[in-house]
Amino acid sequence: MRFWQRGLVLQALRSSWGIRRIHRQPPPPPVPKVVATWEAISLGKQPVPEYFNFAHDVLDEWSRLEKEGHRPPNPAFWWVNSLGAEVKWTFEELGKQSRKAANILEGVCGLQPGDRMMLVLPRLPDWWLISVACMRTGVVMIPGVSQLTAKDLKYRLQTARAKSIITSDALAPQVDTISADCPSLQTKLLVSDTSRPGWINFRELLR
Q1: How far, in Å, CA of 36 to CA of 19, rounded?
Q2: Would you call 34 helix, strand, or coil by DSSP?
Q3: Which of 126, 132, 117 is nearest to 55 (CA)?
Q4: Residue 79 burial (CB < 10 Å; 0-12/13-18/19+)?
Q5: What was the pLDDT predicted at 19?
Q6: Per-residue pLDDT for 28 more than 80?
Q7: Does 191 score more than 80 pLDDT?
Q8: Is residue 118 within 8 Å of residue 165, measured between CB atoms?
Q9: Are the C-beta atoms of 105 and 134 separated by less than 8 Å?
Q10: Which residues, in sequence order, are CB contacts of 50 under 8 Å at separation 6+?
Q11: What gap in Å lies between CA 198 and CA 150, rounded to an integer?
Q12: What is the pTM assigned to this prediction?
């Protein structure tokens, strides 16, 4: 074979190999299906709203879709403790309970949007209800761990000028020792099945 003919054959073979390599590449990933407003925003399909509230724009919207049959009735909240006891709420139930908790913050505690409230609880269902209630009302939640001492609580309440605190039986005595030194503190809510003088029982109001 002449030199120039062999060059043409090699060029043709290289071209065919390139075509094969191109055809062997995996197909592009499918375009994700937009199923929620927040997904549309994250994908650039919708503009970012000027005002956004997770409780209203997500939880309540999914509750509506659930009631209309557009979403399966999957649990919105599923809590299980070490003993096997569990609490399970649908989106509608979570919305209803969190609105009741929001009424407590606004009506009983007199909290307004921007007011600060300290929440010191172990991971009980009440913790999530109060968190969503703060989103609904615009109350600023200051979370704290159950290991806080009286000194820790006093510093946080004074620095934040918190108007309310919600805690459990374990920390209520420590709050009582320092509450007189926190002039901004107006209401104390107790998450418990028992009562305590000077405290408002959150669970009784929720029922």
Answers
A1: 40
A2: coil
A3: 132
A4: middle
A5: 44
A6: no
A7: yes
A8: yes
A9: yes
A10: none
A11: 17
A12: 0.74
